[in-house]
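Much of what follows relies on a compact textual record of a protein's fold. A record is reproduced here so that you can trace the correspondence yourselves:

. . .
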Amino acid sequence: MIATAEANTKTAWLGEFPTHWDVLRIKNLFQEMDSRSETGNEELLSVSYYTGVTLKRESLENEDDHITNALSLIGYKIVAKDDLIINIMGAWNGRLGISPYNGITSPAYCVYRLKGKNNPEYFGYLFTTNLFVSEFRKNSTGIGSGFLRLYTDKFFSIFSVVPPKEEQGEIVQHIKAQEEKINQFIKKKKRFIELLKEQRQSIINQAVTKGINPKAKFSKSKYGLLPENWLSKRLKFIADIQFSSVDKHSLEDEIPVRLCNYVDVYKYDYITDDLEFMIATATESEIERFKVLKGDVIITKDSEEASDIAVPTFVKEDLENVVCGYHLAMIRADETQILSEYIFRAFQSKDINSHFVVEATGVTRVGLSMGEITGVRISYPKSLEEQKQIVEQIKSETKTIDTAIAKTEREIELIREYKEAMISEAVMGKRKLNFAH
């Protein structure tokens, strides 16, 4: 039987749930823990919207990488297995989770321990649903999404549904069983996308290093074999490169702009005016310097993973009030020498991608310096017409692959939406799990 919390305005947002479930404030379910590490030798834990609570060392690229920039981990908060960790600055977008490990976490995070005999994993799923994340946002304080904080008193004041412990366990087991199937599906689809991208990259690499004329003669240069009438130049001699300084800050004395950010560049091959750009602000000089124009090539200049460095996108059309954002480099070709879309394709090639993976440096994030980007060599035909032919052939040969990638990415997106809906329905008792009530 389904109940509703409409009788109480403080709990009306919970909507419908089984009548035999309790509703309690979170302060009656959890207690805050604030034990501190005396040695800093415990496992450092990380909290993410995508992966929940994980071991920080597992995200390192190499064994020699530093686990943190902190000089010492003494004073970090101690976490026990099954504790809830909340990044108070990220609770509004789901940066929290139940820890599967004993360890330590940043002093800036909050650690909570479940009271009584409740199932911590149930509340881990419950608190990451859109329903609860929205409520966490309402109860967070601060100006702008980047500065919102969910403090303990506000967190504790929020109401939560509380099923009987037996049902909590049944719900968790149901979700885990469904998650396993979904995760396997996503894993297979991602591997398929990787194979498609490798195939596409091979086609592009062949075209921008050897051309499309099977009868072309090659000549030896100090940069290797090149087709006749081709050149090899450093990027700085054929394009203007700018590192953007525009962040998502919002200041009253600045001008509102649409921000082409890291995710836009990483996710899309082409930037068009119908994308949902982030709203930010910039100074007049920043707008003049970093305004995005048709034909620009934009690349990621730093990232958490070396493989995500120098990922390019191409600005396909004129844009209205769009500025290039932080963590990105904007490349504007000298089109008397080289077509901008040819540069875009060159950055998609294996040769250039491999070059930047090797050059990227950093600890918690890896990045490229201006010199490393401006110094990369690009081989290209002297003839702009031949460059155009290469670009058009790449488009033709990769069209089917691009379509397959887009279709598979959409399948992953849909299954993730199903997963979110499945979890939301299960934790609120809206899925029949053969409860004995």
